[in-house]
Design a protein that fits this description.
By secondary structure, this protein is an alpha/beta fold. 39% of the residues lie in helices and 18% in strands. A hairpin with a 2-residue loop joins β1 and β2. 48% of the residues are buried.
C-alpha cells in the first residue's frame, strides 16, 4: 500500500480502506458497510455527515476559512458564547488550539504561570498526548522510552489512591492532572469519592486541578462533561477530539484568574480559533445539546451495557466490562486483536491498541448509535467470542 511506503510506520493499520460515512456507519472503497464502534478514535461524536456540522462548514467556507486571533471574528465570538453556555461552572475563559495534546500543553503553561510552581502530578495509567509536555505526563513507558529525557518535576500517583496522592505533594506542587475516566489505558472510571477528595485536597493546598476530558468529555458518558458524573469542577478542563465534528480543534477552559495571569505572546497558535473550526464546533455543540445526542448516549449506553453483561455471563473469556455511556471497554482473557479482525469480517469495527492492554477492546462509537446497531454489535460479539472459545477448547 502506498500509505505504508510514504506515511511511515507510525500507525497500526486495519485492513479497510474507508471512503465515506453516515451516522454511525462507514463504507469502504468496495461498498461494504460497517458499524463503526471506533468513531475515528472518539472524534466522530455527532456521527458522520451530520447535517448541522456539514452545513456550518459549507457556509463558512464561502465566507472565510482563516482569521488569525490578532483580529476579531464573529464566527469565533459565536463559538465562544456557545461553549461558555455548556462549560462547567466558573470556567469562563477559553484558549483555543488544534488538538488534545495542545490543550494539555496550554494547561501546563497556564498552571505553572498562575502558581509560580514547577511540580506536576499525574496518574499512573494516564494518557495526555504525544508532544513533549503532554507525553511527559503520560504514564506508559512505551510511549516515552525512545524520547527521553522527559520534562522534569513530574510524579505519578496511583489512580484512585488518596494516601498515595497526598504522599507525592510538596511545597512546589503546582498542579494535579487526571482523566475522570482513563481512556487509552483501558477505560477506567474514577472510583466513587476520589474526584471529590482530590478537589478538596487541591483547595486546601492551593494546587491547580486539571481534568483531561479529551476522550471522555462532550456527551460521551451521557453527560456533557464526564466530571459531572461526580459533581466536581476542575480549575482547568481540556477538550478536543469531537469538539468540531471532525475538524481539528481544541479548547482549554480555565477559571478567569488563571488565564488572566498570562501575558500577550506567552501562548498562541497560528491556526487556533480559525472560523472553519469555530463554525463546525458551534454546530457540534448545538447537535449535542439540541438534538438529544447526549441523552442518546446515556440511553443507548445502558442498552449496550446490559447486552454486554449478558455476554459476560455467557462467555468465560470476558473478564470485565467497564465504562460509562458510550465509552466502554471489554477486557478479555485472551489477546483481543484476532477478535477485532474477525469483527471486521462481520462488518463491525472496534478499537484496539497495541500500546494499551492487548486484552482490551474499546468502544467509542458516534453518539447517534441506534438500537438496531446495538443488536448487531452484540450478535457479532457473541459469534466471534463463541468461535474463539471453540478454538480454545480444540
Amino acid at each position: 500500500m502506498l500509505e505504508d511506503e510514504i506515511h511511515g510506520n507510525l500507525y497500526q493499520k486495519l485492513p479497510i480502506t474507508l471512503e465515506k460515512g453516515l451516522g454511525s456507519h462507514v463504507w469502504d472503497v468496495d461498498g461494504n458497510e460497517y458499524i463503526d464502534c471506533m468513531g475515528a478514535y472518539g472524534v466522530a461524536i455527532t456521527g458522520y455527515r451530520n447535517q448541522r456540522v456539514n452545513n456550518a462548514i459549507k457556509n463558512q467556507i464561502d465566507k472565510i476559512i482563516s482569521v488569525h486571533s490578532s483580529f476579531y471574528n464573529k464566527t469565533r465570538e459565536n463559538f465562544l458564547e456557545t461553549i461558555l453556555k455548556i462549560a462547567p461552572k466558573n470556567l469562563s475563559n477559553v484558549y483555543l488550539g488544534n488538538s488534545g495534546t495542545e490543550a494539555v500543553e496550554a494547561a501546563i503553561k497556564f498552571a505553572r504561570k498562575y502558581t509560580g510552581k514547577k511540580g506536576m502530578i499525574a496518574m499512573k495509567g494516564s494518557y495526555h498526548g504525544r508532544t513533549m509536555g503532554s507525553l511527559s505526563l503520560t504514564f506508559n513507558p512505551k510511549y516515552k522510552k525512545s524520547f527521553e529525557p522527559m520534562v522534569e518535576n513530574i510524579q505519578f500517583s496511583e489512580f484512585g489512591n488518596m494516601d498515595n496522592l497526598e504522599s507525592k505533594i510538596n511545597t512546589d506542587t503546582g498542579f494535579i492532572i487526571l482523566e475522570p475516566i482513563q481512556g487509552e489505558s483501558g477505560i477506567y472510571p474514577s472510583p466513587d469519592g476520589f474526584l471529590q477528595q482530590v478537589r478538596k485536597l487541591c483547595d486546601e493546598k492551593n494546587i491547580v486541578l486539571i481534568f483531561d476530558e479529551v476522550q471522555c468529555g462532550l456527551g460521551r458518558t451521557g453527560k456533557m462533561w464526564a466530571c459531572e458524573n461526580w459533581n466536581v469542577v476542575p480549575d482547568i478542563l481540556c477538550t478536543s477530539k469531537g469538539l468540531a465534528g471532525g475538524i481539528p480543534f481544541s479548547a482549554t477552559l480555565t477559571k478567569p484568574e488563571i488565564l488572566a495571569s498570562m501575558e500577550i505572546g506567552e501562548q498562541s497558535s497560528t491556526l487556533s480559533g480559525n472560523p472553519l473550526a469555530c463554525a463546525a464546533s458551534t454546530a457540534t455543540l448545538t447537535a449535542l445539546t439540541d438534538d438529544g445526542l447526549i441523552d442518546n448516549a446515556a440511553k443507548i449506553g445502558l442498552l449496550l451495557w446490559s447486552g454486554l453483561e449478558k455476554l459476560k455471563n455467557k462467555h468465560k473469556i470476558i473478564r470485565e466490562i467497564r465504562g460509562k455511556g458510550l465509552m466502554i471497554a471489554i477486557e478479555f482473557e485472551v489477546d483481543a486483536r484476532e477478535l477485532v479482525l474477525r469483527a471486521i469480517e462481520q462488518h463491525v469495527i472496534f478499537l484496539f491498541s497495541i500500546y494499551s492492554d492487548k486484552n482490551i477492546v474499546r468502544l467509542l462509537p458516534p453518539l447517534v448509535l441506534t438500537e438496531n446497531d446495538v443488536s448487531e454489535i452484540l450478535r457479532v460479539l457473541d459469534e466471534i467470542i463463541s468461535n474463539e472459545e471453540n478454538i480454545q477448547k480444540n
